[in-house]
Here is the input.
Amino acid sequence: MEEVDKQSKRLVKVGKEHVEECKTLLKFMGIPYVEAPCEAEAQCAELVKGGKVYAAGTEDMDTLTFGSNILLRHLTFSEARKMPIKEFYLDKVLEGFEMSQEEFIDLCILLGCDYVDKIKGIGPKKAIELVKKHKCIEKILENIDKTKYPVPHNWMYNEARRLFKEPDVIPAADVDLKWEKPDEEGLINFLCVEKGFQEERIRNGAKKLLKGRQGSTQGRLDSFFKVLPSPTPANNKRKSEDGKGSAAKKAKSSAGAAKKGVYRR
Here is the structure.
């Protein structure tokens, strides 16, 4: 119970008040946002498919099931944890599985999703095997041994499938993502007067937002990250040779100094 109490204190419980404050903050910053009527991942996938955004950044792999062309994982904590940002392409995933989007959705339902329980005893390897062989859940149910693989009572896989294929979202065509000029005084009043933030810090942040809006074109995603060249055998060999050469020069210099009676401290 002590451990439960300890962990519960670390939880962040987001309520309606927090959501409203986030929307207020984004408004003053001039950053556009979309309020999803249902699943956030489904709405993000709709924006990607509609060409409104480049990718969906989330840890939830269901975003691919909703049909997002590109998914980014570890976007917000990669730098702190020294983890690379992972980029998934739906077409490459389907190509690798050798499946259609419909078959992929059924695979995700078999593996377990937010809407229905999975069939006990069917793991990832078995699920892939069954989908590749039978192509859909209906055929799978006709051919599996239900004593060995008990199907959940009143298993609503059809409804789950519909939620993935026809989610409740705002159509991308109806969304206008327009960046506005940040309201510096509004930010100061909200964050400093109401929330106690340091005024200089907020004004500096507002200046950065304003400067970012003055760019003529939107930068590529990779411009935000420093890309380090991968080590190659040739580079490693060159570094090793350079190191040996440098060490040899130092040794030769020391020997010469010793002969002359010169010593450095």
